[in-house]
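Project outcomes to date are best conveyed with an example. Our students and postdoctoral researchers have been running inverse folding experiments weekly, and each run begins with a structure described purely in tokens. The record below, which covers 178 residues, was selected by the lab manager from last quarter's runs and is presented without edits.
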């Protein structure tokens, strides 16, 4: 575990609180990502995600298995009749259900309050759409906790059984301009 004080510098004044991140101290952060992330450090929001990237095909398949989308009639598909949201899960519900599923898989060996699902900025690589998040910067609980080698090995084994074979790493959070 890395004390967040080595990574973040909190600046307080009577009117404002800001967070400055020293990205040079983030373990395993590639230089190219460090440069891209540096543009956003003044926004006081989650900038970097550490975890496993999820392919679009995995995410779609698992969401449809866990909570099937609504079935639409031919007239609904053509747009001539409004859809009935009562017959299945909306995309938002599917994403929440996928996050719950992944949290359940990983929570036996990684703190549940650190696990999440977020959209990552994968640059030109459209193969991925989400990150199974294990850590964030700035950190939620003021401690930057990264899994050790043994924990990562166990997580990889668990996730491989569920169809995830990607390697963990640091990713820029998507939608930082919003």
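After processing, the design step wrote out the following sequence:
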């Amino acid at each position: 575990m890395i004390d967040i004080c080595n990574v973040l510098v909190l600046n307080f004044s009577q009117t404002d609180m800001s967070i400055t991140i020293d990205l040079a101290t983030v373990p395993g952060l590639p230089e190219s990502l460090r440069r891209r992330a540096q543009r956003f450090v003044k926004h006081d929001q989650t900038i970097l995600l550490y975890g496993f990237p999820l392919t679009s095909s995995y995410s779609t398949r698992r969401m449809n298995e866990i909570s099937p989308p609504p079935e639409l009639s031919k007239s609904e598909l053509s747009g001539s009749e409004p859809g009935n949201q009562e017959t299945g899960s909306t995309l938002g519900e599917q994403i929440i259900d996928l996050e719950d599923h992944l949290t359940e898989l990983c929570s036996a060996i990684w703190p549940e309050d650190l696990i999440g699902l977020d959209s990552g900025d994968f640059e030109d690589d459209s193969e991925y759409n989400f990150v199974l998040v294990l850590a964030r910067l700035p950190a939620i609980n003021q401690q930057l906790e990264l899994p050790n080698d043994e924990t990562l090995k166990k997580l990889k084994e668990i996730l491989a059984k569920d169809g995830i074979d990607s390697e963990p790493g640091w990713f820029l959070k998507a939608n930082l301009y919003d």
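DSSP finds five helices and eight strands in the chain. The first helix runs from residue 31 to 38. The training component of this project remains on track.
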